Amino acid sequence: MNKHILITGAAGFIGSNILNYLFSKYPKFSFTALDALTYAGNLKNILPEILSSPRFKFVYGDVRNTNLVDDLVGESDIVIHFAAETHVTRSIHDNIKFFDTDVLGTQAIANAVYHHKKTVERFLHISTCEVYGTGLAKKMDESHPLNPHSPYAAAKAGADRLVYSYYLTYKIPAIILRPFNVFGPRQHLEKVIPRFITSILLNEPLTIHGNGKAKRDFMHVSDVATVIDLLVHAPLEKVAGEVFNIGSGKAVSVLQIAKSIEKHMKVSKSQIRFLKDRPGQVSTFRCDYSKIEKLLNWQPKKDFDKSLIETIRWYKENKDVWSEQLWLRKVSISLPDGTVVYH
Ligand SMILES: NC(=O)c1ccc[n+]([C@@H]2O[C@H](COP(=O)([O-])OP(=O)(O)OC[C@H]3O[C@@H](n4cnc5c(N)ncnc54)[C@H](O)[C@@H]3O)[C@@H](O)[C@H]2O)c1
């Protein structure tokens, strides 16, 4: 079956991996990528055979541009909305863009989906586990309260509930996905796993906010791709208006991640250093994905250590892609006591 899919934020980390996956798996599908190519977007993330294909169109533009978004949504059967400002620390440093892009950009997309409700078959909104804040239970399911800890998380929570309100009010065919932490090839150096890997490649210390005991639930980006694939094909009546968590279901501390990366990269003397903690830090995230497991039989497949080794290989082999991001690895933020630190 031919489908035309609009992917926003397709030049970023997850969006490009999903585009690369769906494009090669479905030779009859065609795609439009809408991306503003902010510091986080890079056309090198999209495979050259996609960029030159007649089944693909790249549109340089902003998700807040309502006329442009309306035209592109009007041409599409399926909309997958990744575009966002995504870095928690940067949201502490400069939060305006986060509310602009993450909330108003999502509103522009949701309004366009409403306007083209007769032709848009489904709209996948990519939210995040950050909307929950620190886990109040051992594992967090979709009914966990929303207690965002950072401006990024608050903006994403606004977008998440905006989409849900449009589903209730206007019956748009929306599905909300809340991935826990994701890693893999093409992730920006500001995020923790690429930062650790490239610090070792550059002979620099691995810096950790706080004591490193904060736990996260990390899954490989290919596990996100299998969920998106399922949600693109699932019977709409089963998934419309639903929120789905996805993650590994396992919590690993930031310190443990740093140590594993040092082990896999054969660092003989540990270079781990500790910095003052980041304000709004979340202490534990662990995903309960049983809802989507029961409904669509999805489970994460990739082993954490094997995925880490593959990711390390990608960063070793693609310095030309990530070296352009080096100057963006650190952000200055003011702590509540007034001191300025670089994270
Ligand atoms: N990376 C994770 O661990 C993770 C986890 C859960 C959810 N998410 C969500 O998944 C989505 C993608 O995350 P990512 O890590 O790939 O992000 P990213 O920062 O790597 O990429 C974001 C992309 O959006 C584009 N963009 C930003 N502002 C835009 C605008 N105004 N108009 C058009 N394009 C714009 C950027 O150019 C970039 O290509 C986001 O919505 C994020 O909140 C990410």
Characterize the structure shown.
The protein is 39% helix and 17% strand. With 343 residues, it is an alpha/beta fold. The protein folds into two domains: 210 residues, NAD(P)-binding Rossmann-like Domain (Rossmann fold, 3-Layer(aba) Sandwich), CATH 3.40.50.720; 87 residues, Alpha-Beta Complex (UDP-galactose 4-epimerase, domain 1), CATH 3.90.25.10. The strands form five sheets. The chain has a seven-stranded parallel β-sheet, with helices on both faces. α2 links the parallel β2 and β3. α1 packs across α8 and α3 packs across α5. The longest helix is centred in the first third of the chain and has 20 residues. The radius of gyration is 19 Å and the shape is globular. The termini are far apart. Bound molecules: nicotinamide-adenine-dinucleotide. The site of nicotinamide-adenine-dinucleotide has 31 residues, from α1, β2, α5 and β7. One of its GO terms (biological process) is nucleotide-sugar metabolic process. This is NAD-dependent epimerase/dehydratase.
Q: What's the structural blueprint in terms of helices and strands?
A:
Layout: E1 4-8, H1 13-25, E2 30-35, H2 48-51, E3 56-60, H3 66-74, E4 78-81, H4 88-93, H5 96-115, E5 122-126, H6 151-170, E6 174-179, E7 181-183, H7 192-201, E8 206-209, E9 215-216, E10 218-220, H8 221-233, H9 236-239, E11 243-246, E12 252-253, H10 254-264, E13 272-275, H11 290-296, H12 304-317, H13 319-322, E14 332-334, E15 340-342
Parallel strand pairs: 1-2, 1-4, 2-3, 4-5, 5-6, 6-11, 7-10, 8-13
Antiparallel strand pairs: 9-12, 14-15
The structure holds nicotinamide-adenine-dinucleotide (NAD).
